[in-house]
Task: structure prediction
Amino acid sequence: MEVRAHAKLNLTLDVLGRRPDGYHDLRMVMQSVALADVLTLEESGDGELRVRTNLHFLPNNEKNLAAQAALRWWEARGQVPRGLEITIEKSVPVCAGMAGGSSDAAAVLRALNELEGAGLSPAQLARIGERVGSDVPYCVTGGTALAEGRGEVLTPLPPLPPCWVVLCKPEFSISTPALFAKIDSVKLRCRPDTQGVIAALEAQDLVGVARRMYNVFEDALPERQRSRVNDIKNVLIQCGALGASMSGTGPTAFGLFDSEALAREAQERLTGVGGEVFLTRTV
Ligand code: ATP
Result:
């Protein structure tokens, strides 16, 4: 079975505070984009669980989030693990704030649910996915959604009006745990207007959403990295983006466009500057 694992963007990301269990309470408006990894699941004759990817540095064993999802699946179903070979064609940048690994895990859960004819609901798949990672429950269904708690408390939102997205992952990566550790001591310049974004989605007001996009983790980035992210956002805005922000704990920055021509211009300008640049659409 072949299945797609879409990347996500954060239209907003707010950190509400640290919880007694050490996790942070978050409030985020999430959006899927067409950019996706493609996974192929095949029965393996020798009974082993294996992962192959086109990126040599990703784990090919149980540490791969796709394999973890399969293990959690069989655990939840009370079954012994079966022989399975998962091949992942990665297109979503790694360590980019785009939930690439979580989306692969969610895709495996959707595929196994179908292959085994288990008939679990998206909510049931999300509960299994939660044990793999906080973004996995959202990735089970994707689309436009409000994610709260650690990211696992989901409320579907009206879909973002279709638009073009240009995104750029600079050449460095961000340590998500390090940035979460830092966020408590950072003086936040401002907070996203989450309610305003939700109201704009309800009104199908793309400009209203784009203008309100904000991610508090931008304030927690080390100076040089923040300045690189700001440079990307400035190019996007100069090229006509309706708004620009950073996704997850970064460092990917993206802009929303209502014109394909302007989006292509932004893609070309950013491609000259470095990093991985993509032109995609919301889904
Ligand atoms: P998030 O937005 O959820 O914080 P991210 O985009 O920052 O995620 P990912 O690319 O999902 O980060 O994953 C980063 C880490 O997970 C890397 O250390 C990578 O080695 C590991 N990993 C395990 N399995 C996968 C996978 N299938 N795809 C990508 N990364 C994986």
Notes: The mean pLDDT is 95. The first strand starts at residue 2 and ends at 18. Residues 58-59, 64-66, 88, 94-102, 104, 135, 176, 248-249 surround adenosine-5'-triphosphate (CB under 6 Å).
